[in-house]
Each structure stands twice: as structure tokens, then as C-alpha cells.
Design brief:
The structure holds two protein chains of two kinds.
Chain A lengths: L13 E10 L2 E7 L3 H7 L6 E2 L6 E2 L12 E6 L2 E7 L10 E4 L13 H4 L8 H5 L6 H13 L14 E13 L3 H12 L4 E4 L15 E2 L2 E2 H13 L4 E4 L2 E7 L3 E7 L14 E13 L3 E3 L12 E3 H11 L7 E5 L4 H10 L5 E4 L7 H8 L3 E4 L1 E7 L6 E7 L6 E8 L2 E5 L2 E3 L2 H5 L3 E5 L4 E6 L4 E3 L9 H20 L10 E2 L23 E3 L4 E2 H9 L5 H8 L12 H11 L4 H4 L13 H5 L16 H6 L2 E6 L2 E7 L6 H14 L2 E4 L4 E6 L3 H8 L12 E7 L5 E11 L2 E6 L4 H15 L6 E4 L4 E7 L3 H8 L15 E6 L2 E6 L8 E7 L3 H12 L5 E2 L2 H11 L45 E8 L11 E3 L12 E9 L4 E9 L8 E6 L4 E8 L9 H4 L1
Parallel strand pairs in A: 1-7, 8-9, 8-15, 9-12, 15-28, 17-24, 18-19, 18-24, 19-20, 34-44
Antiparallel strand pairs in A: 1-2, 3-4, 5-6, 5-7, 10-11, 10-29, 13-14, 14-15, 16-25, 21-22, 22-23, 26-27, 30-31, 32-33, 34-40, 35-38, 35-39, 36-37, 37-38, 40-43, 41-42, 42-43, 45-48, 45-50, 46-47, 46-49, 47-48, 49-50
Chain B lengths: L2 E4 L3 E4 L4 E5 L13 H9 L7 E7 L7 E7 L5 E5 L10
The chains are: A alpha+beta, B mainly beta.
């Protein structure tokens, strides 16, 4: 295929570098510097996709982010990605593109029947057509609609690319590198400000790349090159092309994505595909320019119909003529530049202008060049199925509501211009309340809410002179506020062609008796008739019209359609536009890949991982790990082909019989120091703490102010004014914040300091009847007898070159100790314990065995302390001191908290002694009762009791206190089980706690 | 994302902080008879003003100090931040 529409000697592409690509199975060629859109247009390809609702053939409307429908499925290196914007993606070798939303192909598409049936698909057709019968929605309507509508197909494979995030601060962020952006960046940078200049396209310059102007005796594009090299040489400037600022958030935080790799032919190995920048800017200059509006007329959506400015950009930047027989259709002067550009390249255009006349430079020039101009004419209709072939042009009557003298004009493209819409999205996102400007017929920024300033065309300053003046002025003024400098740069003298007034008429009448579609929103297939229907059906608010018709939704966010849509509403309602208002602009301004937003936070990098100092030992010994918050804890140590349950039984049984060792490093540890420490603990915990002797530990329960149990743990008095608190793994961070809250805010008079020492200590629990024997080998010179180190005792022992903290505390219910050493000695300590335990049958045990042990002992843990229960419910009410006040005590007076029938923790055992009870099961009296079955409570934790060799569960049930011996049912609708159970004591093993004291 | 000035560390990004609720709430004193209504108000009732709000923030991934911030709930503007001991009089 040859590039039949490529012009000679024009454009900024690299003609020495030809690149091939495949579109719908056919091979084409383009040049380095092309976008996918310009490369296709160079080959005369306009038909790109099928439209969303009616499956109408669609082409390329624009040359940048404003294009609503030229999206394709892109296949590169075996990975397929949907909704790639042709107008933004740059051509490299090895790309395959496929049209979307069509079957079997883009030129023959079965879905096109929707177009013939379009009277059945009006606005709101979902709500009207598919309501009956109700059951059809899920089985028939919804799957059908889903298949017929939409865009590309998302891959089910993991994204192979790498994305990064970066945080940046600057004095002035300039968004957009057109004349106003470049001049503000230059003025601010020269005045000493730290500037970031962001441009979404590969080339800087904006309109200066396509407009015939001079600035300070240079051609516009030469001035751009000079300013860019000057900015690049300044150390206080970061300039970024291919970088789209797409969101303006609070406190002047903006987000931008930078394309770093897709445009490179041979990227270095670790080049990220895109980078997301979080930019905190002291000031923001929004110089985002303006977007050309399409004109609205019958069948205005055929491939080959595009914006006049886009046609000019394809000519001047890419050397591509979008047609050889162009028709220019306009209501203003700017489209004449496109006509002149065609003519300069040997192509004869015809201009259709809705205005009666225009007497200014550009129009005169066009006339002098011999370009045909049809004033007071409009396009009544177009023809050409897969590409526009002709337009029916007619003279508009005085009221501009009908045509006379219709004539058919052959053409192969129609370049339309309905004047310019300032790109106010970012300003609006920042909170700027826009105002309507009568002269330009658009919304302009008004009062800034944050530190932002809008300049250039985005601010309604459409001429080059205005843009430059505003840019230099604001760039200087704004930077002076920050740098306190006074280095002013003056705007150079510029020369441009003057533009006359535009015609506020843009929606052509239909030919008499015809009902052709006149599209307003090309991405969402919203036509004039849909908006008329919405208003006729009573939708008045523009926000409601938007949602009913889908006008301005999806990735396009109404870039080309918003203003036309709301002007239409105001015309129909005979209101002025400001009364109708505008819809809210929301980030992101353009579509952003999910990968960019996620960045590096994928799979195991999603969040930090905390590992104990003994982690590698666990790995070497076949530990299977479980997430406990950020911690990775051994769940069990797999022997051979053991299942989780088998391993847990083995490990737990060994603790009951011999001795086991468990890594408890992840338990929260808080160091508490200061003369008021005991008093503070006395207020924090429900039981008494003032008289705890040095060298003793105590179990404590803390409440929230609403009386609910918050956390539990043991706290040890290391010395008179020094305590060591432990918390559950899950609540460690919250408990620290809780303590700090009371110390800093509520009782600042207490002299206490708290500090997390969780990671400073490595902890090992040694549990089982043989644990004392093991300890005696570990500390042969110390008295660890029942008298020397009694239950709840604490001692510090010398341990080789360090000191070990030894606590006689037990979670397993067995005789047990916890040994802490400084983290660096963790693995050493572990090895020594294993070594000492060798003859005693020591085995490590994981969290699953730990759970088994604590459940059959009836100790509560996280699955019971769920934030919804009070001490009574957990049978911890014996620990509520009557003599002192503590956090949450006053709430315990609540009537509901003193109800006789309150739920309370019990043990339950299946009557068959075989069936394990699923956690979360409901406890009911009669499983066959009428729905809803009255619920007594739920099963909070289940295990296989290794002591009794049958299943055992903890449950929290109504009036649990008086139900021992009752026969009830545990039902699990999820697992479709109903299990007869008996209520027993929560303490299934050693109810009197003799073992821990032995 | 807000930018919050910790009175001890300076301006930091919001993701270093945890929100801590209304700063004007005072816990009733310990060991004192508290009527039901007063206790309920302390535990459960919070104002939800549109406009300036004096609130607590905790520099949780920083110096771990709690402090007060006067923030406009409608615009997110943080008018100022204060150490806990600062006497700031009438908050609104």
C-alpha cells in the first residue's frame, strides 16, 4: 500500500524512517512521527470503528484528545488492549490494530441493524424497552445489550507493563504549551520560579505548529523551538511532552500521566510504560487552549467528516491531506485557514459558510486564491456509507430553519468548524465557577477557588497577541508572589491574521419531511432528536438530560459535544444558556490506564510485608504462611503431604503432650514509661493495676468509650515506672493511637510516654508440659521453678551475649513461657530453643494450632473481640473493677448492656462428635421454623479439639449463661448444613486452669 | 489530597495523617457522676457543620503528635493548625 494522501515537503514526520503496521489484517506504511490516525489517513483510511449504539460507521473527527470515537483494539507483543486512541498513540514498528464494536468486520457489520431500527432506540430506551417481563432482564436483555454495545475487549491476562509514580513540588505548573503556556512558563522561569511545563502532545507549541503567524520576526514554530531550548537550559524548569494533566484536586494537587515508552521503538529494559506524577504546585497556570466544536447537520457522523482544525493539523504537522476533494463547512473565519492550506498544497476546496458575508483578511485571501465560497449556505444532508461521498448543500432562508436551492456537491471529506470552546475542564475541577460569555458563546473561567490562573484561549483570549500578552503578564505576576523577584520579560511583537465574528448558528435544519440523525455526541450516539425527546419528556436540569441521553459521558466527557448539547437544550426551552448551566467537569480529563493509577502497587508490592527475624527459619522448615495484617505468620509447618487440618492437629497435640514453639513477634508491644504509668494503665484497663508488683504480668482488657471491648493483652511491670504492654497483632497500631490520644488530649497532666517496640523484640512462645524442662536447659543458672518463676511472673535472664525477657504467660492453656530478645538475636534465640528442645520432642506450631489451643481453652481472640460486644458477652465481666473509673465504664450503665438475656460466650459440640461446625453458622432452636428463623447467635471460632478428639466451637448466643446442656442447631445456609449441637462450657479443656499454674 | 501543616513538622501530605474527629468534644472527668444525657452526648453526638470545623488530626506516619486543625468542610481549606496546648478561643 502506498501513502496516497501523503503530501510532499510539508510536515514534521521523518520520511527517512518508514514504519509498517497492520489494520484489520491489512499492512500499511507510515513514517516515524506519525500518530496511528495520521498514518491511516495518509493511506486514505477513514473508516475506523462502529458507533456505540447504532453501529454506524465512524471515522476520525479530531487530531488529539478531543477525538470521541477513533478507538481501536491494539495488539502488541501478544498483548491486546482496548480503546487505544488513534489520535494520540504514536506509530512504532510491530503494531496490529483492530476495529472495535463490529462483527464480522468494520465494513460489514451485523449490528448495523440497530441503525435501521433506530426508532426503537431513543434516549432512555433501556428504561422503556426492556422493562417487561422483568425476568428477561438478566437472562436475555442485559447479555444481549452488553454484547451489542460497548467498545473493545479487555484482556484477561495480567498487564505485562510497568508503571511508576512520582511526587513533585513546584512554584508554577503550566499546563499546555501553546503561545500562552510557553510565554507564561518563560516569564515565570526567568523570574526565578521553579516551573513545570506539561504538554500532552509529542510536540510543543500547540496552535503555533499549525498557524501562519510571526512572533518577534520569527515564524511561530521557530519561536517555539527557541523558547523550548531556552527553557530546557534552565535548571529551575522541568518540561515534559506526552504528559497529560488530567486531574485538579484539593490544595493545588494535580495529577499528570507521562507516556514514557509506547512511542519508543527499542525502549531500555526497565523503562516504565507510563508515569503518574503527583504535583503539588504553589500556583497553576492553565493554558489548555480551546477545542473546535463540530457543526450539527443531518448525517454529520460519516467517516471523512472531521474538524477543520484537525484537517489543518494533519496537513501541517503530518503532511497528510485528509481528502483530495474537501468541502469546508463553517460558521466562522478560522476554517478558512484550513481551506488556504489545502489550496497551498494543490488541492481545491469548496467553502460552505452559514454567514451572509465576512470581510476580513482570511476570507479575502481565500477569495483571491480562487477558492469557491458559498455564503448563507448550509449542509442539509450527506451521503456515502463507509466514507462521505457528497453533501447536499442549500441556501438557508432568513430564519435559518429551512433550505432552498439544494445542490449536491461531491466531496471526499468535510471539514467542519462550529467555532471554539475554551478547555476549562481543569479550572472547573479546581472549583472555578464558570460564567457564560455572550460574545464567544461559551463558558469561561470566572472566580478561582484555588491558586490557579487561566490564560490564553482557555480564558477566551483567542488571538495570538492576547495570548502572549496574558501569558507573559501572568507568568511574571504569579511568579513574583513566590520568588519576590522583579525580572520581567516583555511579550514580543507578533503578527497574525485577524478573525471576524462567528455565526451563533450551528444546528442545521433537516431537509423537509426527513428524520435524519444529527449527531451531537459522537461517542455516545446522542442526536438532536434524543435531546429534544428528553426535554419533551420533562427533563429540565442539564444534569438530568445528560444522564437520560448519556450526552457528554464516558471517556470523552463532552469535549466536542457539551456546549452544543446545552445550547440545544436552551434553544428548545427558550432559555438563555447561563440559565441552563453546565454539567460538572470531573477528573480524569482523558482516559487513564488503570495500570498508571496503580503504579508499582501490584501483587506482593500492593502493600508492605512485615516479617519476623525468624522468617527464614520458617521458610526453611516448610512453613505455609498466612497474612496477619501486614505480617506474614507461619500458619502451619507442612510435613510430607499433610493437609492444613492434619498439620494443625499434629502441632497442637504436640503442645499438649510435649512442647511447642511459636513465633509471637507480631504481637503488638508498647513500652510505657513515666511516674504515672500505673495510674494510666488503671484508667485504660478495666481491672486494677496500681498494686501490680514489679516482676509480674497481668492480663488486661480495654474498652472503647462506648463500652465495647477494644483489645486485650498482658502487661508486665518491668520496674516501678516501666511497663511492657502487649496487644493483639491486629489492633497494635490502633491501641498505640488510642493511648496517645488519652495521653496527649484527655489527660496531658499524666507523666507517661508510650512507644511502639513491636519490631524491637523477637518473641517465641514455648508451651507444653515439658516447657520448664526446656527452659532449664536454656537458662541453666537461673531458678525457674514454680516458686522462682511463678505463673504470671517475669524475669530478665542473661542469654549468651544478650539479655532475655522471660514471661510466664500462656495463651495455649499449657504451662508456657514467652521469651523476648532484641530482634537481631531472634533467629539465634530460636535456634537455641530448638536445640534445647531436641530431646523433648519440640515442634514449631503455627497460627492454626495456636487457634486450636486457645479455642478449646475458651480464650477469646479477634473473632470474638469484634468491636460489637461488651465484657459480659465475652465472660470478661469478672475483670470489671467496681472500685475505680476507667475508659468506657460509664457506658456500661446502659439498659441494654444489663439485659438478663444478653448474649454470652459458650462452647458448643456437635452431638455426633464428628461434624465440624462452619465458622459463622447461626445457632437456632428449630431449623425448620418459619422464615426468618429466630437467631440465637453465631459461631465465632471452630477447631478440632485435640484433647477430646472431636469438633469444638465457640459461639456467642442469647442468654448463653443459662443454656448449658441445651440441645440446639448450628445452621449454615451457605454450606447447606444443619447440625444438632449441645451447649457446653467455653472452657473445654482444663476448666480450672491448673496446667498454667503447674 | 490535602496538604496539612503539622505544627511540629511542617507541611506534609494528607496520607501521613489520620483524622481524629471533633476537637471541641471534652471527655467528662473521671470518677464524677455524669448524667446520662451528658455521657450520650459525649459518646455519640457530633455536629456535622458545613463550614469551619475545629478537628483533631494525628500525625500518624510522622511525629505521632495529635494536633488541632481548623478546616472548612465545604472547601477543604485548612485555615490553620494548632498545638493542643494553644489557646485558640472560639473555634468558629
Amino acid at each position: 500500500m502506498t501513502q496516497n494522501y501523503r503530501l510532499k515537503d510539508i510536515g514534521r514526520i521523518d520520511r527517512n524512517h518508514e514504519i509498517s503496521f497492520i489494520f484489520n489484517g491489512k499492512k500499511y506504511f507510515g513514517y516515524k512521527g506519525d500518530t496511528l490516525a495520521s498514518a491511516l489517513l495518509a493511506n486514505g483510511v477513514h473508516l475506523i470503528a462502529r458507533s456505540f449504539k447504532y453501529h454506524r460507521p465512524r471515522g476520525i473527527l479530531a487530531a488529539g484528545v478531543d477525538d470521541p470515537s477513533a478507538k481501536v483494539q491494539l495488539i502488541k507483543d501478544g498483548y491486546s488492549e482496548p480503546n487505544i486512541n488513534l489520535t494520540e498513540f504514536e506509530l512504532v514498528e510491530g503494531l496490529e490494530l483492530q476495529s472495535q464494536n463490529c462483527w464480522p468486520s468494520v465494513s460489514v457489520d451485523v449490528g448495523e441493524i440497530n441503525n435501521l431500527l433506530n426508532r426503537f432506540f431513543p434516549a432512555g430506551f433501556y428504561y422503556k424497552t426492556f422493562m417487561w417481563p422483568k425476568s428477561f432482564w438478566y437472562s436475555i436483555y442485559e447479555p444481549f445489550i452488553r454484547k451489542a454495545a460497548g467498545f473493545g475487549v479487555a484482556s484477561l491476562d495480567p498487564d505485562p507493563d510497568r508503571y511508576e509514580h512520582q511526587y513533585e513540588h513546584c512554584d508554577v505548573l503550566v499546563v499546555g504549551s501553546g503561545p500562552s503556556g510557553l510565554s507564561s512558563a518563560l516569564a515565570a522561569a526567568k523570574n526565578g520560579a521553579r516551573v513545570i511545563l506539561a504538554e500532552d502532545k509529542p510536540r510543543f507549541g500547540g496552535s503555533l505548529l499549525t498557524d501562519e503567524v510571526t512572533i518577534g520576526n520569527k515564524k511561530g514554530e521557530e519561536w517555539v523551538d527557541d523558547v523550548i531550548s531556552e527553557l530546557k537550559s534552565m535548571p529551575n524548569v522541568i518540561i515534559k511532552s506526552r504528559s497529560q494533566v488530567f486531574g485538579y484536586y484539593d490544595h493545588n494537587m494535580l495529577v499528570m500521566f507521562e507516556r514514557k515508552r509506547d512511542h519508543l521503538q527499542d525502549p531500555a529494559k526497565f523503562t516504565p510504560r507510563e508515569k503518574l506524577w503527583y504535583i503539588r504546585a504553589k500556583e497553576v497556570i492553565i493554558s489548555t487552549g480551546s477545542i473546535e466544536r463540530p457543526l450539527v447537520f443531518a448525517n454529520n457522523d460519516r467517516p471523512g467528516i472531521m474538524l477543520a482544525s484537525a484537517a489543518k493539523e494533519y496537513l501541517k504537522v503530518y503532511g497528510v491531506a485528509v481528502g483530495k476533494k474537501p468541502l469546508i463547512f463553517t460558521n466562522n473565519d478560522s476554517a478558512y485557514e484550513t481551506a488556504i492550506e489545502f489550496k497551498n498544497n494543490g488541492i481545491q476546496p469548496t467553502i460552505v459558510d452559514t454567514r451572509a458575508s465576512s470581510e476580513n483578511q482570511l476570507v479575502n485571501e481565500a477569495q483571491k486564491m480562487g477558492i469557491d465560497i458559498l455564503f448563507e449556505n448550509g449542509i442539509a444532508n450527506t451521503s456515502g456509507h463507509l466514507k462521505v461521498k457528497s453533501a447536499t448543500v442549500g441556501k438557508l432562508n432568513n430564519e435559518k430553519n429551512s433550505f432552498t436551492n439544494l445542490q449536491k456537491i461531491d466531496c471526499d471529506c468535510i471539514c467542519v468548524s462550529g467555532n471554539w470552546t475554551p478547555t476549562v475542564h481543569l479550572a472547573s475541577q479546581s472549583g472555578n465557577k464558570l460564567k457564560f460569555d455572550e460574545e464567544s458563546d461559551t463558558f469561561l473561567p470566572n472566580q478561582s477557588r484555588q491558586q490557579e490562573t487561566v490564560v490564553g484561549a482557555a480564558n477566551g483570549s483567542f488571538t495570538l497577541k492576547e495570548s502572549l500578552d496574558e501569558g507573559f503578564e501572568q507568568g511574571f505576576k504569579i511568579s513574583s508572589k513566590i520568588t519576590n523577584k522583579n525580572n520581567k520579560t516583555n511579550a514580543p511583537i507578533s503578527d497574525e491574521k485577524s478573525l471576524g465574528k462567528h455565526d451563533k448558528f450551528w444546528c442545521m435544519p433537516l431537509p423537509e419531511g426527513k428524520h435524519y440523525k444529527r449527531f451531537v455526541d459522537f461517542q455516545n450516539d446522542v442526536a438532536v432528536s434524543d435531546i429534544e425527546l428528553a426535554v419533551r419528556e420533562g427533563f429540565r436540569s442539564i444534569e438530568h438530560v445528560k444522564r437520560y441521553t448519556t450526552l457528554g459521558m464516558a471517556t470523552d466527557q463532552g469535549k466536542t459535544s457539551n456546549l452544543n448539547g446545552l445550547q440545544l437544550v436552551s434553544n428548545i426551552e427558550k432559555k438563555i444558556v447561563p440559565e441552563v448551566g453546565h454539567t460538572t467537569f470531573r477528573p480524569p480529563y482523558t482516559s487513564v490506564t488503570i495500570g498508571t493509577i496503580i503504579g508499582r502497587e501490584v501483587s506482593k508490592y500492593y502493600r508492605a510485608t512485615r516479617k519476623s527475624p525468624m522468617h527464614e527459619w520458617h521458610e526453611r522448615n516448610n512453613a505455609v504462611f498466612v497474612d496477619a495484617g501486614l505480617w506474614l505468620r507461619p500458619r502451619y509447618y507442612k510435613h510430607g503431604n499433610e493437609t492444613l487440618q492434619e498439620a494443625a492437629k499434629r502441632e497442637a497435640a504436640n503442645v499438649r503432650k510435649n512442647v511447642g514453639i511459636c513465633d509471637v513477634t507480631s504481637l503488638g508491644k508498647i513500652d510505657i514509661k513515666g511516674p504515672d504509668s500505673a495510674e494510666f494503665l488503671n484508667r485504660v484497663y478495666t481491672n486494677a493495676w496500681l498494686k501490680l508488683p514489679v516482676g509480674k504480668a497481668r492480663y488486661g482488657v480495654m474498652l472503647r468509650e462506648d463500652g465495647m471491648v477494644f483489645d486485650d493483652g498482658t502487661t508486665t511491670r518491668i520496674s516501678e515506672n516501666h511497663f511492657h504492654m502487649t496487644t493483639t497483632t491486629a489492633q497494635a497500631a490502633n491501641v498505640l493511637s488510642h493511648l496517645e490520644y488519652y495521653l496527649q488530649i484527655v489527660w496531658p497532666e499524666l507523666e507517661v510516654n508510650v512507644l511502639s517496640t513491636t519490631e524491637q523484640w523477637a518473641g517465641a512462645a514455648i508451651a507444653g508440659p515439658k516447657s520448664r524442662e526446656l527452659l532449664s536447659k536454656l537458662f541453666p543458672n537461673e531458678d525457674i521453678s514454680n516458686e522462682g518463676l511463678p505463673f504470671m511472673g517475669y524475669r530478665e535472664f542473661k542469654f549468651f551475649d544478650t539479655t532475655a525477657r522471660v514471661f510466664r504467660i500462656s495463651f495455649s492453656g499449657e504451662l508456657a513461657y514467652e521469651v523476648n530478645v532484641m530482634s537481631d538475636f531472634g533467629e539465634f534465640m530460636w535456634d537455641k530453643i530448638i536445640e534445647a528442645g531436641e530431646g523433648l520432642g519440640i515442634q514449631p506450631y503455627g497460627t492454626e494450632a495456636l487457634s486450636t489451643l486457645r479455642i478449646e481453652m475458651g480464650h477469646v481472640a479477634g473473632s470474638e473481640i469484634d468491636g460489637r460486644l461488651i465484657s459480659y458477652d465475652l465472660a470478661l465481666d469478672g475483670m470489671l473493677s467496681k472500685k475505680k473509673d476507667f475508659i468506657g465504664k460509664r457506658s456500661l450503665n446502659r439498659v441494654a448492656f444489663n439485659d438478663e438475656n444478653r448474649e454470652r460466650i459458650v462452647g458448643i459440640v456437635p452431638i455426633d462428635k464428628k461434624t465440624s461446625i462452619p465458622e459463622g453458622s447461626y445457632i437456632v432452636e428449630d431449623p425448620n421454623a418459619a422464615f426468618p428463623i429466630p437467631k440465637l447467635g453465631h459461631v465465632s471460632a471452630s477447631c478440632w479439639s485435640v484433647e477430646r478428639n472431636n469438633p469444638f466451637s465457640l459461639a456467642i448466643i442469647k442468654n448463653g449463661k443459662n443454656r448449658k446442656g441445651e440441645k440446639l442447631f448450628a445452621v449454615s445456609p451457605v454450606k447447606n448444613m444443619s447440625i444438632p449441637v449441645e451447649v457446653v462450657s467455653q472452657h473445654y479443656v482444663d476448666p480450672d486452669g491448673e496446667r498454667v499454674r503447674s | 489530597m490535602l496538604e496539612i501543616k503539622c505544627p511540629y513538622c511542617g507541611k506534609r501530605s494528607q496520607n501521613e495523617f489520620a483524622y481524629g474527629g471533633d476537637a471541641t468534644v471534652k471527655r467528662p472527668e473521671l470518677n464524677k457522676e455524669v448524667p446520662d444525657e451528658e455521657w450520650d452526648t459525649f459518646v455519640y453526638y457530633r455536629k456535622n457543620p458545613r463550614g469551619n470545623h475545629l478537628e483533631l488530626w494525628h500525625h500518624i506516619s510522622g511525629c505521632r503528635q495529635w494536633f488541632k486543625a481548623k478546616r472548612n468542610t465545604a472547601t477543604h481549606e485548612i485555615i490553620d493548625t494548632f498545638e493542643l496546648s494553644d489557646d485558640i478561643g472560639d473555634a468558629s
